Every structure is written in C-alpha cells, then in structure tokens.
Amino acid sequence: MKEPAITVKDLEITYKTVKKYSIKRNLLRMKPVETKKVEAVRGVSFEVEKGEILGIIGKNGSGKSTMLKALANIFSADAGTIDLHGNSISLLAIGVGFMGDLTGRENIMLSGLVLGFSEAEVEAHMDDIIAFADLGDFIDMPVRTYSSGMYSKLAFSVTAILETDIMLIDEVLSVGDESFKKKSYGKMKELISDGDRTVVIVSHNLGTLQELCDRVLWLNDGEVRMCGDTKEVLNAYREFMK
Length: 242
Fold this sequence. Notes:
The protein is α/β, with parallel strands linked by helices and about 240 residues long. The chain has a single domain, classed as Rossmann fold, CATH 3.40.50. The chain is built from eight helices and nine strands. It has helices at about 20-25, 65-70, 105-115, 120-135, 150-160, 180-190, 205-210, 230-240, and strands spanning about 5-20, 35-50, 55, 80-85, 90-95, 165-170, 200, 215-220, 225-230. Strands 5-6-7-3-8-9 form a six-stranded mixed β-sheet, sandwiched between helices. A three-stranded antiparallel β-sheet has the order 2-1-4. A hairpin with a 2-residue loop joins strand 8 (about 215-220) and strand 9.
C-alpha cells in the first residue's frame, strides 16, 4: 500500500443561507433576516493514496464542491480533520482564486505566491503559463473582463504549469473552446501519468471519470453513499439517477 496523501476523518461542514424574501423584509426594517442552516458535509471519512486519481460524484447540492474547498483550506471544518501529510495543494475551479481588478499576468503571480512558490519561481514559469493560456492581449487586461472560458483557460494554465503535489479539479475540463478542451485534457492526462501526483476530480461527466480515475467517491446529501472501484460506483450511480 502506498503512503497516504489525503486523510479525511469524520468531516462535518455547515453554513447558513439567507432566504431571499427575508432580505427584502430586512431592508424595509420589517423583520430580522431569516437564515437556514445547511449541513453540506456530514461525517465524511476517506483516504487518498499518493499518486491516486479519485473522482467525486453526486447530484447538485451533495457537497462535492464544498468538500474540495475544505481540502483546499478555503472552508473550515466544523468537526473532524483533514490531513494533507505535508503535501502542497492547488484548486482548479471557476470563480476561485483570481482578483477581478488585477490583470491576468498579475493574477498569475498572485496565484503562484498563494500556492507557496517564490516570486522568482513564478517568473521562471510566467511565459509558459501565458503561452498555454493563449489569451493574447487579454493577459494584460483585468480578469473581470474575461469570459468564463477565458477565466478557465488562465486558471487551468496556472495549475498545470505550477505543479503541486495534489491537484483538486472542480468541473472545469469541459470549459473553453474545442481546441483548448483538447489541449487541457491532454495536459491533464500528462500530469496524471506522474505516479507521484495525487488528483481529486469533481465532475458530472461520467465518461471522463471512467477514463481517468482509479476510484470514485459518491456523495449524497453530504454523506458517503459509496466509495470504491470506478466502474462499480459509476454503474450504481447511473442506476440511482435513472
């Protein structure tokens, strides 16, 4: 058995949502804002070995993205533990990690520093990241002017070129034009082929997970429904979703 890269034990994450109508009432000073407690992740435990590719599936609202953000230390656990065993980690997800008023080039530097790379290390990879993203003059324009496809190109390029021990990928392999989809998918397979890199992928594309993943974790309403062999779990999920 390989050494563990990620160990999650009895993880629980809750957050509060505000009801839309209560915001209007509060603005009119009629009533206090009403909130609802959401148990996004409930008692989840699993382990990922070093070099393993784990897929995470589940219907919308099942806790998949919350789980990834907890692994990336964006969300804090209310209970339980996450142990990354000293590994560096990066999260590739739309809407996470960039500052809208900064240019693409400036965000590359900021993202690299946040990931733990030195300014010199990011500078050394800057040209490769820019070339892979292929954004032309937009690289020196504010990220808030980018389309979702352009945003994902830059995000993927940063994560792909500034390689970390653990890569977390949240439903972004299908974003962008056809040429970039093909290029990013090829790059992802290249990164995954490194037996030392650990990857966790959240996706609704079961075909992609079938091809790339060693195992699949199925979350349902914040709890682990099933975890194991990729084909076995995906077949059970397909039956469940019929």
